[in-house]
Specification:
It is built from nine helices and seven strands. It has about 240 residues and is of the alpha/beta class. Strand 6, helix 9 and strand 7 form a beta-alpha-beta unit. Helix 8 crosses helix 9. The longest helix has 14 residues. This is site-specific DNA-methyltransferase (adenine-specific).
Length: about 240
């Protein structure tokens, strides 16, 4: 006897019933591509994605905290990446707000410095995005710090209006503090694949688009492959 399929949340049911968005030529999903992220986002149709991730390479830590390791030792890999001024981050978030469907989610990586400055919501001013939650990633290793040493990063959860959890966020077992170690070496900003997978499954139905315009190590691509969702993204380094 066939096992009844669990009912999906209303928004996810509607997404499954809707035809997949028509993507422009050159935007094949589930692959790496070398592109400038803002230009890539502008080519995508409006409201085509269920979720998006954005890990901006901000200069706040390098310029204002001035740890003195720019271009040296362990800081060499980070400082070699193309840094984003605040105006560029704001442009990215505006485009991400455009490509997200109504009630879609943007997962914005942010460190303690920018979190305390209230930058997540400030960067989203003028868009339909509002911060509705936050998840903290415990990396299991201490990093830099003049006083306390940085061992966590924060993932600001922004949602496009209309703001609602019921019928949009399907998981009820995701804590707001998740510990996950990532391998050393490789990309200096590799993010936790399993944590991202759980978040993707919570807000996107199987096959739906998840966008990442600054993909870095392509950990979101890995997460989408595990979750059975469709990745669409790029990075300056390819």
């Amino acid at each position: 006897m066939a096992v009844p399929r669990p009912a999906l949340a209303p928004v996810l049911d509607a997404a499954l019933a809707a035809p997949p968005p028509e993507l422009p030529a050159g935007c094949q999903p589930d692959r790496r591509r070398r592109r400038e992220g803002r230009r890539f986002l502008r080519e995508l149709p409006a409201e085509c994605a269920a979720a998006a991730f954005f890990d901006p390479q901000y200069r706040g830590v390098l310029d204002r905290l001035q740890y003195g390791n720019e271009g040296k030792g362990r800081g060499r890999g980070r400082s070699a990446l193309a840094q984003m001024p605040e105006e560029t981050i704001i442009e990215f978030i505006a485009e991400l707000g455009r490509v997200l469907r109504p009630s879609g989610h943007l997962f914005l990586w942010i460190d303690k410095f920018h979190l305390c400055a209230g930058d997540a919501q400030k960067w989203a001013e003028g868009t339909a995005l509002r911060q509705v939650d936050m998840v903290t990633w415990d990396k299991g290793r201490m990093g830099m710090g003049y006083r306390t040493r940085r061992q966590v990063e924060h993932l600001a959860v922004l949602q496009k209006k209309p703001l609602r959890a019921k019928g949009v966020w399907s998981a009820r077992d995701i804590p707001d503090l998740i510990t996950e170690k990532v391998p050393r070496g490789g990309h200096p900003h590799r993010k936790p694949v399993e944590m991202q997978r759980r978040l993707i499954e919570a807000v996107a139905a199987p096959g739906e688009l998840v966008v990442d315009p600054a993909a870095g190590s392509y950990s979101v691509l890995e997460s989408c492959q595990l979750a059975g969702r469709t990745f669409l993204g790029c990075d300056l380094a390819g």
